[in-house]
Amino acid sequence: MNYSASPGFFRNHIANRIFDSVKRPTYAYITITALCNSRCKYCDSWKNTGKSEPDTDEWKGIIDELVRLGVVTLIFSGGEPFIRKDLFELASYARSQGLVTMVVTNLSLFEESHIEKIAGSFDFFGVSIDSTQPEIYKDTRGVDWLEQIKRNVRTLMAGLTELKSDVYVCGMVTISNQNAHEMHEILHMIFDDLGMDTISFNLLDGSGGATAGELAPTEDQIRYCSKIISDHKSSYPISNSARFLSQIGNFDYRCNSWKSVQLNENGFLLSPCLFISGRPDIFPEGRKTDVRKNKLSDVWRKQQKIYSQYADCKLCNLGCVAESAWPTYDLKFILQDSFFGMILPTMKRIQKRNCGQDSHC
Fold first, then answer.
1. Could you tell me if residue 256 is inside a domain?
2. For the residues of 184-207, what is the DSSP string, one character each?
3. C-alpha 303, offset from chain centre
4. DSSP classification of residue 286
5. Most buried residue among 101, 272, 325, 332 by CB atoms closer than 10 A?
Protein backbone atom coordinates (compact mmCIF):
# COMPACT_ATOMS: atom_id res chain seq x y z
CA MET A 1 0.00 0.00 0.00
CA ASN A 2 1.38 3.38 -0.98
CA TYR A 3 0.89 5.00 2.42
CA SER A 4 3.16 8.00 1.75
CA ALA A 5 1.27 9.18 -1.32
CA SER A 6 -2.27 8.53 -0.12
CA PRO A 7 -4.99 11.21 -0.27
CA GLY A 8 -4.67 11.65 3.50
CA PHE A 9 -1.02 12.61 3.26
CA PHE A 10 -1.67 15.20 0.59
CA ARG A 11 -4.75 16.50 2.44
CA ASN A 12 -2.65 17.10 5.53
CA HIS A 13 0.19 18.54 3.49
CA ILE A 14 -2.12 21.16 2.00
CA ALA A 15 -4.03 21.88 5.24
CA ASN A 16 -0.85 22.38 7.24
CA ARG A 17 0.49 24.86 4.70
CA ILE A 18 -2.69 26.95 4.79
CA PHE A 19 -3.67 26.84 8.46
CA ASP A 20 -1.18 27.67 11.21
CA SER A 21 -3.26 27.49 14.38
CA VAL A 22 -4.00 23.76 14.65
CA LYS A 23 -1.89 21.25 12.74
CA ARG A 24 -3.25 17.99 11.35
CA PRO A 25 -1.08 15.05 12.51
CA THR A 26 -0.31 12.33 10.00
CA TYR A 27 0.98 9.58 12.27
CA ALA A 28 -0.09 8.10 15.58
CA TYR A 29 2.18 5.92 17.68
CA ILE A 30 0.35 4.03 20.42
CA THR A 31 2.01 1.81 22.98
CA ILE A 32 -0.71 -0.80 22.97
CA THR A 33 0.84 -2.47 26.03
CA ALA A 34 3.86 -1.85 28.22
CA LEU A 35 4.34 -5.57 28.83
CA CYS A 36 7.21 -7.27 27.04
CA ASN A 37 8.69 -10.76 27.03
CA SER A 38 12.14 -9.66 25.84
CA ARG A 39 14.81 -8.48 28.27
CA CYS A 40 16.61 -5.93 26.12
CA LYS A 41 19.58 -4.14 27.65
CA TYR A 42 18.64 -0.86 25.98
CA CYS A 43 14.99 -0.79 27.07
CA ASP A 44 13.24 -1.11 30.43
CA SER A 45 9.78 -2.01 29.10
CA TRP A 46 10.08 -5.57 30.36
CA LYS A 47 10.02 -4.21 33.93
CA ASN A 48 6.49 -2.81 33.49
CA THR A 49 3.42 -4.38 35.14
CA GLY A 50 0.76 -3.54 32.54
CA LYS A 51 -1.55 -1.87 35.04
CA SER A 52 -4.30 0.61 34.04
CA GLU A 53 -4.09 -0.10 30.31
CA PRO A 54 -7.16 0.81 28.20
CA ASP A 55 -9.48 -2.05 27.35
CA THR A 56 -10.58 -2.89 23.82
CA ASP A 57 -13.51 -0.47 23.71
CA GLU A 58 -11.42 2.35 25.17
CA TRP A 59 -8.73 1.88 22.53
CA LYS A 60 -11.40 1.84 19.83
CA GLY A 61 -12.72 5.14 21.16
CA ILE A 62 -9.21 6.59 21.01
CA ILE A 63 -8.82 5.28 17.44
CA ASP A 64 -12.04 7.08 16.49
CA GLU A 65 -10.59 10.30 17.92
CA LEU A 66 -7.37 9.80 15.95
CA VAL A 67 -9.37 9.50 12.73
CA ARG A 68 -11.27 12.71 13.51
CA LEU A 69 -7.97 14.43 14.21
CA GLY A 70 -6.75 13.63 10.68
CA VAL A 71 -4.31 10.79 11.39
CA VAL A 72 -3.44 8.68 8.33
CA THR A 73 -1.11 5.99 9.70
CA LEU A 74 -1.43 4.18 13.03
CA ILE A 75 1.56 2.33 14.50
CA PHE A 76 0.98 -0.26 17.22
CA SER A 77 4.04 -0.46 19.45
CA GLY A 78 4.98 -1.84 22.84
CA GLY A 79 6.21 -3.54 24.92
CA GLU A 80 5.37 -6.54 22.80
CA PRO A 81 2.08 -5.87 20.96
CA PHE A 82 1.26 -9.56 20.53
CA ILE A 83 0.78 -9.86 24.29
CA ARG A 84 -2.51 -8.03 23.74
CA LYS A 85 -5.09 -10.65 22.78
CA ASP A 86 -7.16 -7.98 21.02
CA LEU A 87 -4.32 -6.73 18.78
CA PHE A 88 -5.85 -8.08 15.56
CA GLU A 89 -9.29 -6.82 16.53
CA LEU A 90 -7.95 -3.32 17.16
CA ALA A 91 -5.85 -3.29 13.98
CA SER A 92 -8.78 -4.51 11.89
CA TYR A 93 -10.99 -1.87 13.46
CA ALA A 94 -8.44 0.86 12.68
CA ARG A 95 -8.21 -0.36 9.11
CA SER A 96 -11.99 -0.31 8.79
CA GLN A 97 -11.87 3.36 9.79
CA GLY A 98 -9.53 4.09 6.88
CA LEU A 99 -6.20 4.08 8.73
CA VAL A 100 -3.00 2.55 7.41
CA THR A 101 -1.95 0.06 10.09
CA MET A 102 1.55 -0.82 11.20
CA VAL A 103 3.01 -2.92 14.01
CA VAL A 104 6.49 -3.67 15.36
CA THR A 105 6.97 -7.02 17.12
CA ASN A 106 9.75 -9.35 18.24
CA LEU A 107 7.68 -12.16 16.58
CA SER A 108 8.27 -14.56 19.48
CA LEU A 109 4.53 -15.14 19.98
CA PHE A 110 3.81 -15.72 16.30
CA GLU A 111 1.74 -18.73 15.27
CA GLU A 112 1.07 -19.99 11.75
CA SER A 113 -2.64 -19.39 12.32
CA HIS A 114 -1.85 -15.66 12.58
CA ILE A 115 -0.89 -15.34 8.91
CA GLU A 116 -4.37 -14.67 7.53
CA LYS A 117 -5.07 -12.29 10.41
CA ILE A 118 -1.85 -10.40 9.68
CA ALA A 119 -2.80 -10.14 6.01
CA GLY A 120 -6.23 -8.83 6.96
CA SER A 121 -5.16 -6.46 9.72
CA PHE A 122 -1.87 -4.80 8.80
CA ASP A 123 -0.35 -2.88 5.92
CA PHE A 124 3.16 -2.87 7.42
CA PHE A 125 4.58 -5.60 9.66
CA GLY A 126 7.89 -4.83 11.38
CA VAL A 127 10.02 -7.55 12.97
CA SER A 128 12.78 -6.55 15.39
CA ILE A 129 15.89 -8.50 14.44
CA ASP A 130 19.31 -6.99 15.11
CA SER A 131 21.93 -9.64 14.48
CA THR A 132 22.93 -12.67 12.46
CA GLN A 133 24.67 -14.18 15.48
CA PRO A 134 22.69 -15.94 18.26
CA GLU A 135 25.15 -14.91 20.96
CA ILE A 136 24.90 -11.21 20.06
CA TYR A 137 21.12 -11.41 19.81
CA LYS A 138 20.95 -13.04 23.24
CA ASP A 139 23.37 -10.59 24.82
CA THR A 140 21.46 -7.60 23.44
CA ARG A 141 17.88 -8.78 23.89
CA GLY A 142 18.37 -11.04 26.89
CA VAL A 143 16.65 -14.02 25.25
CA ASP A 144 17.95 -16.80 23.00
CA TRP A 145 15.37 -16.46 20.24
CA LEU A 146 17.24 -15.71 17.01
CA GLU A 147 16.79 -19.08 15.32
CA GLN A 148 13.14 -19.25 16.42
CA ILE A 149 12.48 -15.77 15.04
CA LYS A 150 14.13 -16.68 11.73
CA ARG A 151 11.93 -19.79 11.43
CA ASN A 152 8.87 -17.67 12.19
CA VAL A 153 9.83 -15.12 9.54
CA ARG A 154 10.22 -17.84 6.91
CA THR A 155 6.81 -19.29 7.81
CA LEU A 156 5.24 -15.84 7.68
CA MET A 157 6.78 -14.98 4.32
CA ALA A 158 5.71 -18.30 2.80
CA GLY A 159 2.16 -17.81 4.06
CA LEU A 160 1.87 -14.24 2.81
CA THR A 161 3.26 -15.30 -0.56
CA GLU A 162 0.64 -18.05 -0.81
CA LEU A 163 -2.06 -15.48 -0.04
CA LYS A 164 -0.46 -13.01 -2.46
CA SER A 165 -0.70 -10.47 0.32
CA ASP A 166 0.75 -6.99 -0.17
CA VAL A 167 1.69 -6.54 3.51
CA TYR A 168 5.14 -4.95 3.83
CA VAL A 169 7.31 -7.19 6.04
CA CYS A 170 10.22 -5.17 7.38
CA GLY A 171 13.31 -6.12 9.35
CA MET A 172 13.66 -3.51 12.10
CA VAL A 173 17.33 -3.13 13.03
CA THR A 174 18.61 -1.13 15.99
CA ILE A 175 22.25 -0.17 15.44
CA SER A 176 24.39 -0.60 18.56
CA ASN A 177 28.06 -1.16 19.30
CA GLN A 178 27.19 -4.88 19.49
CA ASN A 179 26.06 -5.31 15.89
CA ALA A 180 27.61 -2.38 13.98
CA HIS A 181 30.29 -4.63 12.49
CA GLU A 182 27.73 -6.96 10.87
CA MET A 183 25.59 -4.53 8.87
CA HIS A 184 26.56 -6.23 5.60
CA GLU A 185 25.62 -9.64 6.96
CA ILE A 186 22.34 -8.36 8.43
CA LEU A 187 21.28 -6.88 5.09
CA HIS A 188 21.88 -10.16 3.29
CA MET A 189 20.16 -12.16 6.05
CA ILE A 190 17.03 -9.99 5.81
CA PHE A 191 16.77 -10.04 2.02
CA ASP A 192 18.57 -13.14 0.73
CA ASP A 193 18.11 -15.61 3.58
CA LEU A 194 14.74 -14.61 5.06
CA GLY A 195 13.17 -13.09 1.93
CA MET A 196 11.74 -10.09 3.75
CA ASP A 197 10.41 -7.13 1.78
CA THR A 198 12.36 -4.22 3.25
CA ILE A 199 14.58 -3.16 6.13
CA SER A 200 14.67 -0.13 8.42
CA PHE A 201 17.48 1.13 10.64
CA ASN A 202 17.46 3.16 13.85
CA LEU A 203 20.28 4.26 16.10
CA LEU A 204 20.07 2.90 19.61
CA ASP A 205 18.57 5.44 22.01
CA GLY A 206 21.11 5.85 24.81
CA SER A 207 18.42 7.05 27.22
CA GLY A 208 16.08 4.12 26.64
CA GLY A 209 17.07 2.15 29.75
CA ALA A 210 19.43 2.04 32.68
CA THR A 211 22.19 0.29 30.69
CA ALA A 212 21.33 1.63 27.23
CA GLY A 213 24.30 4.02 27.18
CA GLU A 214 26.68 1.05 27.33
CA LEU A 215 25.45 -0.09 23.91
CA ALA A 216 25.62 3.22 22.06
CA PRO A 217 27.61 2.96 18.79
CA THR A 218 30.74 5.06 18.33
CA GLU A 219 31.05 7.75 15.66
CA ASP A 220 33.32 5.47 13.62
CA GLN A 221 30.78 2.66 13.84
CA ILE A 222 27.97 5.00 12.76
CA ARG A 223 29.97 6.17 9.74
CA TYR A 224 30.75 2.57 8.82
CA CYS A 225 27.09 1.54 9.09
CA SER A 226 25.97 4.55 7.04
CA LYS A 227 28.37 3.65 4.23
CA ILE A 228 27.42 -0.04 4.15
CA ILE A 229 23.69 0.70 4.15
CA SER A 230 24.02 3.46 1.54
CA ASP A 231 26.10 1.19 -0.70
CA HIS A 232 23.30 -1.41 -0.65
CA LYS A 233 20.47 1.03 -1.28
CA SER A 234 20.64 0.62 -5.05
CA SER A 235 20.40 -3.17 -4.73
CA TYR A 236 17.77 -3.58 -2.01
CA PRO A 237 14.62 -1.69 -0.92
CA ILE A 238 15.84 0.03 2.25
CA SER A 239 13.20 2.01 4.16
CA ASN A 240 15.49 4.83 5.16
CA SER A 241 15.93 7.87 2.97
CA ALA A 242 19.29 8.88 1.53
CA ARG A 243 19.02 12.03 3.63
CA PHE A 244 18.56 10.01 6.81
CA LEU A 245 21.59 7.87 6.02
CA SER A 246 23.78 10.87 5.21
CA GLN A 247 22.87 12.57 8.51
CA ILE A 248 22.59 9.56 10.82
CA GLY A 249 24.12 10.35 14.20
CA ASN A 250 24.12 14.08 13.47
CA PHE A 251 20.67 15.02 12.20
CA ASP A 252 19.99 18.48 10.86
CA TYR A 253 16.22 18.77 10.73
CA ARG A 254 13.34 20.84 12.03
CA CYS A 255 11.30 18.52 14.24
CA ASN A 256 7.62 18.89 13.57
CA SER A 257 6.62 16.84 16.58
CA TRP A 258 2.96 17.65 15.96
CA LYS A 259 3.08 15.36 12.92
CA SER A 260 2.70 12.37 15.24
CA VAL A 261 0.29 11.76 18.09
CA GLN A 262 2.10 9.70 20.71
CA LEU A 263 0.04 7.80 23.27
CA ASN A 264 1.45 5.64 26.03
CA GLU A 265 0.18 2.35 27.42
CA ASN A 266 -2.17 4.12 29.86
CA GLY A 267 -3.91 6.15 27.16
CA PHE A 268 -2.03 9.35 27.90
CA LEU A 269 -1.10 11.84 25.17
CA LEU A 270 2.62 12.61 25.45
CA SER A 271 3.23 16.24 24.49
CA PRO A 272 5.24 17.05 22.50
CA CYS A 273 6.80 13.57 22.37
CA LEU A 274 7.70 10.59 24.51
CA PHE A 275 11.25 11.87 25.06
CA ILE A 276 10.36 15.28 26.42
CA SER A 277 7.18 14.41 28.31
CA GLY A 278 9.17 11.84 30.25
CA ARG A 279 11.74 14.37 31.47
CA PRO A 280 9.86 16.94 33.58
CA ASP A 281 13.11 17.82 35.37
CA ILE A 282 14.55 19.15 32.10
CA PHE A 283 11.43 19.92 30.09
CA PRO A 284 8.74 21.19 32.47
CA GLU A 285 6.47 22.06 29.51
CA GLY A 286 6.14 18.42 28.56
CA ARG A 287 2.82 16.92 29.55
CA LYS A 288 0.93 13.68 29.92
CA THR A 289 -2.83 14.00 29.46
CA ASP A 290 -5.34 11.18 29.94
CA VAL A 291 -7.38 11.01 26.74
CA ARG A 292 -9.80 8.56 28.32
CA LYS A 293 -10.97 11.47 30.47
CA ASN A 294 -10.30 14.31 28.03
CA LYS A 295 -11.37 14.56 24.41
CA LEU A 296 -8.27 14.14 22.29
CA SER A 297 -9.19 16.85 19.78
CA ASP A 298 -9.65 19.38 22.62
CA VAL A 299 -6.33 18.45 24.21
CA TRP A 300 -4.59 18.62 20.84
CA ARG A 301 -5.91 22.11 20.17
CA LYS A 302 -4.89 23.41 23.59
CA GLN A 303 -1.35 22.04 23.39
CA GLN A 304 -0.27 23.42 20.00
CA LYS A 305 2.09 25.89 21.73
CA ILE A 306 3.96 23.02 23.39
CA TYR A 307 4.57 21.42 20.01
CA SER A 308 5.80 24.66 18.43
CA GLN A 309 8.28 25.25 21.29
CA TYR A 310 10.34 22.24 20.31
CA ALA A 311 10.59 22.71 16.56
CA ASP A 312 14.39 22.93 16.76
CA CYS A 313 14.85 20.00 19.13
CA LYS A 314 17.35 17.41 17.88
CA LEU A 315 17.48 15.09 20.86
CA CYS A 316 16.56 11.81 19.18
CA ASN A 317 18.15 9.75 16.43
CA LEU A 318 15.14 7.59 15.70
CA GLY A 319 14.46 7.30 11.99
CA CYS A 320 10.72 6.88 12.54
CA VAL A 321 10.67 10.32 14.18
CA ALA A 322 13.18 12.12 11.98
CA GLU A 323 11.78 10.82 8.71
CA SER A 324 8.20 11.74 9.60
CA ALA A 325 9.27 15.18 10.82
CA TRP A 326 11.15 16.17 7.67
CA PRO A 327 8.73 16.16 4.75
CA THR A 328 5.98 18.34 6.19
CA TYR A 329 6.38 21.14 3.65
CA ASP A 330 8.78 19.33 1.34
CA LEU A 331 6.60 17.73 -1.31
CA LYS A 332 9.70 16.99 -3.38
CA PHE A 333 11.06 14.85 -0.54
CA ILE A 334 7.77 12.96 -0.22
CA LEU A 335 7.68 12.09 -3.91
CA GLN A 336 11.34 11.57 -4.78
CA ASP A 337 13.14 10.36 -1.68
CA SER A 338 10.21 8.70 0.07
CA PHE A 339 8.08 7.28 -2.73
CA PHE A 340 10.60 6.63 -5.52
CA GLY A 341 13.54 6.00 -3.18
CA MET A 342 11.87 3.76 -0.60
CA ILE A 343 8.27 2.74 -1.26
CA LEU A 344 8.33 1.92 -4.96
CA PRO A 345 11.33 -0.46 -4.70
CA THR A 346 9.55 -2.30 -1.87
CA MET A 347 6.33 -2.53 -3.87
CA LYS A 348 8.26 -4.04 -6.79
CA ARG A 349 9.90 -6.60 -4.50
CA ILE A 350 6.52 -7.59 -3.04
CA GLN A 351 5.08 -7.96 -6.53
CA LYS A 352 8.00 -10.21 -7.48
CA ARG A 353 7.58 -12.17 -4.23
CA ASN A 354 3.91 -12.81 -4.91
CA CYS A 355 4.28 -13.58 -8.59
CA GLY A 356 7.06 -16.13 -8.34
CA GLN A 357 7.12 -18.09 -11.59
CA ASP A 358 3.64 -16.90 -12.59
CA SER A 359 4.16 -15.12 -15.91
CA HIS A 360 0.59 -13.82 -15.87
CA CYS A 361 0.89 -12.15 -12.48
1. yes
2. HHHHHIIIIIS--SEEEEEE--TT
3. 24
4. -
5. 272
Instruction: Give a yes or no: residue 273 inside a domain.
Output: yes
Tell me, yes or no, whether 164 lies in a domain: yes
Within 13 Å, how many C-alpha atoms sit on residue 219's CB side?
1
Distance CA 102, CA 92 (A): 11
- Mapping DSSP to helix (H, G, I), strand (E, B) and coil, where does residue 154 land? helix
Q: Which among 40, 27, 66 has a CA at the least distance from the CA of 131? A: 40
Count up the domains in the chain and report the number: 1
10 Å CB burial of residue 281 (0-12, 13-18, 19+) is: exposed
Rounded to whole angstroms, the Cα distance separating 54 from 62 reads 9
In a domain, 168, yes or no: yes
Domain that holds residue 279: 7-355
Q: Where are the alpha helices (DSSP H) in 97-144?
A: 115-121, 134-141
Q: Is the pTM of this model over 0.90?
A: yes
CATH code for position 180: 3.20.20.70
Alpha-carbon span 286 to 61, nearest angstrom: 24
Segment 260-313, tens digit of pLDDT: 899 999 999 998 887 777 666 666 666 889 999 999 999 998 888 888 887 777
Instruction: Point out the least confidently predicted range of 18-22, 103-107, 125-129.
Output: 18-22
Residues 6+ apart with CB under 8 A from 14: none
